[in-house]
Amino acid sequence: MSRLLYQGVAGIIDRTVGLSSDSAIDHSLRRQWQAAQWDKLREECGVVAIHGHPDAARQAYLGLYALQHRGQESAGIATADGHHLANIKGMGLVSEIFTDDVLQKLPGQMAIGHTRYSTTGDSALLNAQPIRVDSTKGLIAIAHNGNLVNLGNLRTRLEREGAYFQTTSDSEIIVQLIAHSRANTLVDAIADSLSQVEGAFSIVMMTRDRIFAARDPRGFRPLSMGRIRNADGPDTIVFASESCAFDLLRAEYERDVLPGELVMVTGDGVTSRYYATGVPQASCIFEHVYFARPDSRIFGRWVQESRDQMGRQLARESGVPADVIVPVPDSGVTAALGYAEEAGVPFRLGLIRNHYVGRTFIEPEQRVRDFGVRLKLNPVRNLLEGKRVVLIDDSIIRGTTSRKIVRMVRGAGAKEVHLRISCPPTISPCFYGVDTPRKRDLIAANQSIEEIRRFIEADSLAYLSLDGLLQSCNGEKPQGFCTACYTGQYPTQWVDVNEILPATAGA
Ligand code: SF4
Questions:
Q1: 240, 245, 330, 459: least buried by Cβ within 10 Å?
Q2: Domains observed in the chain
Q3: Ligand 1 binding pocket includes 282 (Cβ within 6 Å)
Q4: Please, what is the average pLDDT of the chain?
Q5: Is 430 designated active site?
């Protein structure tokens, strides 16, 4: 059961429908429970935009459905029909919120959508997106993936200038900057606003008659543009955080929105301009390691290709005599396939994941917590018994989950358990939209690899080298990547740590 947000303003339908007063609490508990049980970094957000489709809301819904892995806490869709701007958002999964009845309330040929796992601002429904602001430049709805790092200064300045913030989300700062810009046209005001914010943002915006899409100058988060060909009229233009959304929409991938680029789509077609140039690219390499789906093409490269190469490189760097290669599902699967092929050792699905854990609320009582990882994973005993097993995973965060998995595999009769990680040790928190524990909770920030090996009780442990990771993710055209969580070297000039720490501390 979901709770939806509706607010009524002249010319606007921005709604909340209370279906269950407990559901926000349920989601918070669900999230705490999931975090306690599964030691993974959390996805950030996913965005979509549709221009020129008679049922834009349903297209946005399909796009968000394909991007559900990027955030499961809340979702929203705003639509425009040339006159009105409707906006509905709620807590829960996209399919829980947007039933047929709800989609009927979203008329128009344009839509933007958002699915969220909160990174800044609290996780209340108020901060769900799209955010809609009625400004001197007209009605604007915005959906944002990423995290701004100079929000403290900007918010203070804007409040001094009379801005009234409706949310605690950093995304609203962009809209307030647009509203307070002295530029004469909306597109100039957007460019002016984007050039003032620092950090990670892939955004889609909508007015009554236009769609905008933009990426920050370093290109931290992905954002792609696609096209649905219409035989009897103009093409539908679509944007999505990941290209996997285009498949469900039957759209062709056209290109990535480039770092520092602002694309505008109107009834007259697509135009583009750069509001920032000459900034070194720093796309999030962890998108390739874990966040993005392997069937997506991001930063100009298929995620599947990168993960396959990570596995192969891992086998070359730290191969060990073994009988089977077993992925920690699901994210370790592609790298494990690459490792197995390179090592010439059979790939086996020796761990089976229960996909329905966390999809229904489970009371987080101690007796349930004690099931731990066993609720989510189960070993296939006949594949593991008496075998030398290489387990492939994509990260060790606190180490507690890895230890449980190693114990589980050994408990199923494995003779040896070797753990291989398809990226370098995670030693620093992320300030660009990924929910990371504090440094003191990151095991690799505080212990040597040998100490971690002993803690997780593996026979051997090895990580992919940073060079190996960069090689794996660089296709024919080398990219600039952010690797700050592995190196501690942040690509932005400064990080407003005090502003961001309270939001990340709960992970
Ligand atoms: S710090 Fe890590 S997770 Fe964050 S943007 Fe950089 S590479 Fe991605």
A1: 330
A2: 3-280 (3.60.20.10), 288-490 (3.40.50.2020)
A3: no
A4: 85
A5: no
